Amino acid sequence: MAFFQKDTTVCLYPVTIGRQGEPSKAILKQKFGKNNHVVNVSLSNSLLAVSTRTRLELCWIGPQSPEPRTEIPHGDWEPSGLAIHEERSEVFVAIGHHRQLKDSREGLVTLYDVKLPAAIRATAIRKYEVPMRDFPKSLLFDSHGESLTCITEIRNLILVWKLADPNPFVCGRYQHQPQTGSDGVTSSIIYKSQSEQAYILCSTSASTERYKSKGDWSFTSPVTAPNEDMPFTSVHEFVNLQAYRHLVAGAVSSVANIYAVLEKSGKIVILRLTGHEEGGICSRDEAPRKLRASLCGTRGLRASTSCLRFDPEGKRLFAVDPEGTLLVVRFRPED
């Protein structure tokens, strides 16, 4: 399935590779009022989660259910960030919120356990406080549903929570000044090496700090325990990406050891990953590979990190754009 969102509409389409000229028909089209515009959307096999200005809506997209939809109001919080993970009959939904205090903002992430399929019953099971008076910009579960990654809005910090631990691992690029909003970190994804060490790979959009530091801000970092010191010798920038600006999404394959990034222009660039002699992982000392085919570009459109992803086996890369273009690239494990 793939979804496309506008301020007042969310459409859900089946992803099929058919004959050209036969577009897929939307299997679900949900409209929202102008005073309740769409903020974030996330999708799993059975559930569509839509965060609007006033509430979180969970919509069942599987077989018929006696209660196909449920709504959770935001209260006095503003929504910011949404993620969903489904495995078998268990679904977790994470939603970020923030609110204005007297002289700062307060950020919070709430984790819901959603029971399926008899009815949609969402229970808040955990709350994670965002440190340093910051708040979420985007959220993402890892592929196994073991951890939750958050990019913050103000300082562009990377926070990683183990779902049972309220204390996050904090990854910050301390040699750079923070960038706020769409500039700075645009996507983050967890990668596990053959030794089972977890790393986080981050893509970035154009930032004034990129030019001040004479390098690229996209980087990889090991994920450590919350109270464990960061081995900074294991943090590496993807310097061979410095010619590519405005990166909006990234995807990684632990099988093919490949990191794919999407430029705002629609170009898809492939990096091969390898171990670094000082620890950690980095890109190989070779020029990035640019795919011949490209998407329509995302200028003027809201890009989603879900528009670029590998299949669970890590052998096929899927890329989709708001005009309906679907690209499928196959990789061999030795690539």
Describe what you observe in this structure.
β25 (308-310) and β26 (316-320) form a beta hairpin. The chain contains one helix and 27 strands. It has one helix at residues 208-212, and strands at residues 2-5, 9-13, 28-31, 38-43, 47-52, 55-60, 69-73, 78-87, 90-100, 105-115, 121-130, 136-141, 147-152, 158-162, 169-171, 184-192, 198-205, 219-222, 236-237, 247-253, 258-263, 268-275, 281-283, 289-290, 308-310, 316-320, 326-330. The chain has 335 residues and is mostly beta strands. The strands form seven sheets. Strands 20, 21, 22, 23 and 24 form a five-stranded antiparallel sheet that branches. A four-stranded antiparallel sheet has the order 4-5-6-7, with no helix packed on it. Strands 8-9-10-11 form a four-stranded antiparallel sheet, with no helix packed on it.
The secondary-structure element order is: EEEEEEEEEEEEEEEEEHEEEEEEEEEE
**Rg, alpha carbons:** 19 Å
Strand content: over 45%
What average pLDDT do the residues reach?
Answer: 81
Count of β-strands: 27
Number of helices: 1
Low-confidence blocks of residues: 18-23
Q: Report helical residue fraction.
A: under 10%
Assembly state? single chain
Which structural class do the helices and strands define?
mainly beta
- The coarse overall form would be globular
> Main sheet, how many strands, which sense, barrel?
5 strands, antiparallel
**Span of the ends, CA to CA:** 27 Å
